Amino acid sequence: MVTFLSGGTGTPKLLSGADAVFEPAETTVVGNTGDDVELGGLLVCPDLDTVLFERGGVLDRETWWGIDGDTHETNEYLLELASAAGLETGPRYLPDACQTDGREIARWRRFSGIAEFMTIGDRDRAVHLTRTGLLDEGRSLTEVTRTLADAFGLAIDLVPMSDDPLATMIHTDRGEMHFQEFWVAHRGEPAIERVEFRGEARATEAVLTALEDPVVIGPSNPITSVGPIRAVRGVEERLARVPVVVVSPFVEDRVFSGPAGDLMAASGYEPSTAGVAECYPFADAFVLDDGDGTTLDRPVVRTDTAMDSREDAERVARAVEEALGGID
Ligand code: GDP
Question: If you take atom 27 of ligand 1, which residue's CA is the nearest one?
Answer without folding.
Answer: 249
